Amino acid sequence: MARISASVYTSHVPAVGAALDLGKTAEPYWQPVFAGYDFSKQWLKEQKPDVIFLVYNDHANAFSLDLIPTFAIGTAAEFAVADEGWGPRPVPKVIGHPKLAGHIAQSVIQDDFDLTIVNKMDIDHGLTVPLSLMCGQPQAWPCPVIPFAVNVVQYPAPSGRRCYMLGKAIRKAILSYDEPLNVQIWGTGGMSHQLQGPRAGLINKEFDTNFLDRLIADPEGLSKMPHIDYVREAGSEGIELVMWLIARGAMNDVNGGGNKPKVLHRFYHVPASNTAVGHLILENN
User: Fold this and answer.
1) Residue 47 main-chain phi, psi, to 5 deg
2) Which end of the chain is more exposed for a tag (fewer CB within 10 A), N or C?
3) Active-site residues: which are they?
4) 3-260 CATH fold
C-alpha cells in the first residue's frame, strides 16, 4: 500500500522564482533565502518520493472570478506552466499521476468532501516556486506531482479546521491505494504578508514563529484559529497558511499513528520581496 513519508511546508513567493530564473541566487539579498533550502534539496534527492501531493493556490491563472472552486484536484497526465504576464517560467512541465489522483478524488468525495476534478489546467508560481526551491533547476521534476488547488484568494476561503480534516481524508485515501508508493504531501503559501492597502508590506515575525511552533506541537488547536486572526495578525494574504493544515492533517501522529513527527528542518527569513519566507520538513515516525 502507499504511504506518506513526510510533509513539506514552504512559502511560494513569486519573486523567489524570478530570482532563481534570472540567476540572482548568489546576490547578497537573495543568498540567505536560497541557503535555507540547501538541506532540503539534498534531503529530497535522498528521499526519492514516487509522488508529491502539492497543495497550493492558483493566482487567477487556471481559475478566474468566473469559476472559483474551493478545492480542486488535478487529474491530468501533465500540466503546462502558466503565463503570468511575463511569459511562462523556464521550468519543466509538471507530470501528473492520474491514477492516484483519481483514487484520491473517489475516496475523498465519498468521505463527504466536495472536490472539483480538473482534467486540464495550467499551474503557476504557487506550485512551481516550491518545486524550484526544493529541486533547483532540473531538466525534469524528480517525480510526478498531483496539484491540489485551494481557494484562498476570493472570500469565502475554507476554514483551517476544514483544511485540517481534509488532510486526514487525503491521508486515508493515499494509504488505501494499492501500490507501494512513497508519497510526500506539501503545503505551500504564506507566511505573513499583505499586498495592498494601508498595511501593505506587513510582516509579523512573532505570529509566524508561533504558527510554526503550533503546527508542530498543536495542529489540532491551531486548526481552530478563525479567519479574522489570520487577517489581523498575518495580513490579508496570510490566510494562505490554512493550506499548511491540509499537509499537517495527513501526518501519522494526528491520525492515531504514534509519536510526533521528526522535525528535520526549520527555516524562517525576512524579507524576501514583501513577505516572510517560512519552511519546515516533518518526517513521519
Assistant:
1) -70, -40
2) N
3) 125, 193
4) Protocatechuate 4,5-dioxygenase; Chain B (3.40.830)
